[in-house]
Every structure is written in C-alpha cells, then in structure tokens.
DNA sequence: TCGCTTCCGAACATCGTGTTCGGTTACGGT
DNA sequence: ACCGTAACCGAACACGATGTTCGGAAGCGA
C-alpha cells in the first residue's frame, strides 16, 4: 500500500524533466548529454540512473505527462454522443500546444504523430468512408496536421490557435466534402 | 585542372556510401557506428576520416546524389513554359522513390521535407492565391506529401506510384478548388 | 618506369555511458 | 522528537565510440 510518493522523488524527477526540456529547447535533443542534464538539475549521476534507464526514457516520461493531459482534454469532447464539430479536436490540440510552448518546442513531432494518426483513423472510420484506403487518408491528414503544428510552434505561434484551426479546416474540408459529394452522386 | 577522379577515391566513397545505406536500412541511423560502416565496407579508419568529417557528412553525401537526380527530373517538367498538370511533380517524386527503394528507406524524411516545401511554395505562389498565408498552405501540403511518402516507403509500396499520385490528387484538389471557387465568387 | 596520391592500421587521447558501493541526508510514520 | 528506511551523493571504474596522427605499403595516371 504505497503512501504518497516521497517528496525527494518528486523533486528529483521534476528537476530532471525540467532540465532536459530546457536544454533540448536550447540545443536540440542530440546535443544534450546526460552530464548536461545532471549539471543543470544539480542531481548526482547515480541518482539519475536510479530513476531512468537513459536519456530517452527521461524524455519519454516528459511526453507522457503531456500526452495524458491532451488525451484527457480530447476525451471531454465525445462525452455527449453527438458528433459535434469534427474540427473541434484540432482546436483543442492547438490550444494545448499554445498553453505548453516549451515542451512542444522540445518534443519532436514523431511522438505526436503516432497519437494523432490513431485519433485520425478512428475519426475517419466512424464519420465517413472516402472511397480510398483509410490508412492513406489518415496518414495524409495526420502528417499535414502534425507538420503544420510543428511549423507553428517552431515559428513562435505567428497566428492564434483559432486562426490555425480555421485555416486547416479550409485546407482540409474541401477535399473531404468533394469526396462525399461524389460518393453520394455516383 | 583536375583530371578524372582517382579510381581509388571513387571505389572508397562508393563502398562507404553503400555500406552506410545498407546498415541504416537494417538497423536505423542511430544504431549504426562508424566502425560498423568500416567493417562492412572493408575500409581503414583513417581513410574514412580523410573523406568525410563524420557519419553525418557521409549520410548527407548519399542524399546529395539522390537530390540532384530528383531535381533534374523535376526540372524536365517545366521546360516548355506551359503550366501542365500541376500534379505531375507528385507522380515524379513517387516514381523516383519507387526506383530507389533502398535509399528512400534509409533517408529520413527531414531532408526531403525542406526540398519539397520549397517546391510547394514556389508552385503555390505562381499558380493561385488561396486567400491564406502561402507559408501555411505550403507547409501543410508539404507535410502531408512527405508524410504519406514516408508511409508508403515504410510499408513496402502497397500501391503503385500512379495510384498514390491519384489518391493524393483527390485528397488535395478538393481543398484548392473550393478556395478558388470562393475567391472567384466573393 | 616514376612520382605522387591514396590507403592502411595501429596507437593514442578524449568523451559519453551506465554501474557499483560505502557513506550521508532527509523523509514519513509513530 | 525519534527512528528505521529509503533516497541521494560522488568517486571510481569498465566499456565503447569518436576523431587524429604517422610511417610504411600499394595503386594510380602519365
């Protein structure tokens, strides 16, 4: 029956995560060594390896928090059963990134990609059949979305989350609408 | 007045490039060491560093050949001044990838991304104004294209290049056509 | 054949990684 | 406040990868 997590553990892990994110933002993931993280966080070497297998594991743990947070917000959209605005999820993603600029700057798009791909495929399966392989459409739209999200983050949020969602809607919905129309007519 | 390149240089560089590509396909870029490349190519250590600064430089040189080749093929499309099929470039890219499966499997999409983004932006500037920032549209379409290309390569070319180009056309053209129509009407 | 370039390979210094272990500190529970 | 335990420290170590140096051997083009 584990009591509340030891305060030392909390502080150690938080310091390590914060240090890694800072350093990755400053130099990029590849140019950060474990030693750098240790110095920045002021944590002993052996302590690091008592908590994480390696740098990659620490990085993943940073992203896990973020992912859970985002998934929770996404989950709130589908509670009432009604389909709702199919582009609302995009708004949510951009709002989320805008609220966590540091970690979105640090995290590569590869982690995000897998998650968004899955959301996208489920969405396409339930909402409409486009007359072409679902995986192709899902990969296409997921790549576009993650790519433009990364661009937006890298360029320090040159447009508001709302504007980004609107523009993506306009770039995307035409293709979908046209396919639906053809499918209905043919 | 440099004569033809020394045969030894040609053979050395070719062996190194081939070895690196093979190993990257087998294990992924991060899991390949310089030593691995040396063993596979049967080249001495000092010889390697006489030709390339590090592993990254060798990898870049692999991609340069490919890029020049692709750019040449792309260049052949615009020689007659007529606009032609705006989706022909996409066919060319997929045909090219299909003809060089090994190196496309090895090369990450990041190198490709920059190139395709530039082509896309130029294309959008000359062809049509979409009523939203060109950079946004270019990044969106470039990301989608590179993403789906990577997916196609990773999954061992589950559709023909022609089919891929067609599907992308259908996923893309609706959005563009709709924007053009609105701009003309409004 | 001749002169020059390239290649070889062993040795070396340097750096990052991940582990071990005995000693110290700080936490949570009572 | 006290105590047992868990976490932290830091120095030392083994290991592997990187990139450089240099003298000698071999292959190239002319």
Can you characterise this structure?
Chains A, B: It comes from Paractinoplanes ovalisporus. Chains A, B: Keywords: DNA-binding. Chains A, B: This is TetR/AcrR family transcriptional regulator. Chains A, B: Pfam families: TetR_C_8, TetR_N. The structure is a homodimer of 186-residue chains. By secondary structure, chain A is mostly helical. The first copy, chain A, has 2 domains: 52 residues, Homeodomain-like (Arc Repressor Mutant, subunit A); 125 residues, no CATH class. Chain A contains 9 helices and no strands. The longest helix of chain A has 25 residues. Chain A is elongated and about 55 Å long. The first copy, chain A, starts with 6 loop residues before the first helix and ends with a helix. At the A-B interface, α8 and α9 of A face α8 and α9 of B. Chain A binds a DNA duplex (30 and 30 nucleotides) through α1 and α3.
């Amino acid at each position: 029956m584990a009591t509340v997590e030891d305060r030392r553990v909390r502080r150690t892990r938080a310091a390590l995560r914060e240090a890694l994110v800072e350093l990755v933002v400053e130099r990029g993931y590849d140019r950060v060594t474990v030693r750098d993280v240790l110095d920045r966080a002021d944590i002993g070497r052996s302590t690091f390896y008592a908590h994480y297998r390696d740098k990659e594991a620490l990085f993943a743990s940073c992203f896990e928090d973020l992912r859970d947070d985002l998934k929770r917000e996404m989950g709130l959209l589908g509670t009432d059963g009604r389909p709702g605005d199919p582009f609302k999820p995009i708004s949510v993603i951009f709002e989320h990134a805008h609220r966590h600029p540091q970690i979105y700057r640090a995290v590569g798009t590869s982690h995000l990609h897998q998650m968004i791909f899955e959301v996208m495929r489920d969405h396409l399966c339930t909402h409409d059949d486009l007359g072409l392989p679902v995986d192709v459409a899902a990969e296409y739209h997921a790549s576009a979305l993650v790519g433009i999200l990364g661009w937006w983050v890298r360029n320090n949020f040159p447009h508001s989350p709302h504007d980004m969602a609107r523009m993506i809607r306009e770039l995307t919905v035409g293709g979908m609408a046209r396919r639906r129309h053809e499918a209905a007519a043919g």
